[in-house]
Here is the input.
Amino acid sequence: LATRSAARAGLATSLLVALFFGFGQICRVVDQVCEYLSGFWVEHQTIPPLGVLALLTIAAWAALRVVFRRPGDFRRATAYLNVSAAILVALPSLGAASARMRQPASPLPGLATSKVPAPTSAGPVTGRRPDIYFIVLDGYARSDVMKDLFGFDNGPFLGRLERKGFFVARRSTSNYCQTRLSIASTLNADYLDRLLDPSARADLLPISTLIHDNRVVRLLRPRGYRFVSFATGFEPTDCFDADLFLQPGPAPTEFDRLLVEMTPLGPIFAEVKMQDRYSAGRDRTLFLLDALPKVASMPGPTFTYAHVVCPHPPFLFGEHGEDVSPREIFPHAFNPRLADRKFGTPDYFREAYRKQSIFLTDAVEAMIGRLLAASPEPPIIILQSDHGSWLRYHPDDADATDLRERFGILNAIYLPGRKPDTLDDRMTSVNTFRAVLSDAFGEDLPPLPGRNLFSPFKDPLDFTDVTERLHSDAEKRRQFTYPGKYPSLLQQF
Here is the structure.
């Protein structure tokens, strides 16, 4: 209506849409250019995104004046833009259609997607159906690593667990070095190369399927168990279709959040103090720590899978639980904290990880105490980390990685009044539920040989067996370098 010309209107609309959805990228480019130029004169300071928005508004106003007032025929320019837009839409549409048409990779028959038949055993000798809690502390280092690399001695915490009746595997390791791989393997009590089709190595969707539709739940449901899960904010490990999926409140999806961060709405939301990703992460962790003991009051037996995304970066909690988030003025833009040259260095990582681990250790110990007190009968509790920490972890280079750090995990199991022979100090996480289900329900699940498999972040299913190297004396004497950067410090995963 303003231009009385479809061609002019097309140009104006294209300009506004491009600026609106390109705003986040423009902010990053401007900041990177200024950071580069600062090497020639003054030190670079982060440019406020609202300032960039003001400059773009002036530029957009000037461009719209040209479109509205300049004489001439704009139909050719609009035609070029129409073709470009059609190509931009067609490329992802074709990719999505191709992915849908292609037969997706599936877990191997009989191990993942097929229903496990109802057990033929009569169940445990006592006839009990205890509540079972699988609590995963993401990236919590093994005790010796925690003390050596981060200066935090959690030995007293482990000792108190043992006095409560926990078995603590002091030399335990994970079988995989990435979260979704480790959790999928543990919940299915098997190695992924026995669960997945090896010809579909590039397809990661079956990993999520193995987590959502896992062997443990399929064995427990015929016994009357309900599946309870908590929100993590990391979709591949979230079990939305659990019988009860718990979260602190309605939350935007990852897609919604990323879409908003592309636009000028990001800084506007931040200015009015709307919830950002760090507040959401803190809320999910605090909610889980508070709500998990309440599951004990639910009628009937429950299996609870609680993935605590902590002490995984970004570091959101200080030693006493205070908010130390790397708060951003604009999501994904460079952070004011980056002016502190210690941010992102190994020293920063070491100190922030130690403090967050201290907070989490105290909070988890208190939670377990409340859980045991609230349980009508003694439950089964598995407190385990999915993998170790990141200080000397090179995501795509096994040779440079400190394997003891990355594979060494916390592994504490509470089987009230019992310690199966299959629990040993060096057990790996793949045998966790093999031991628990065999002991509690008489399942025939003998332990598997312990293997440690490294895979690069860029190709998670390309496994290298590092078991021998991990446990060698030479590995203990190696000198390790730190990675060039810790990319997870400003993002959830």
The CA atoms of residues 7 and 75 lie 5 Å apart.
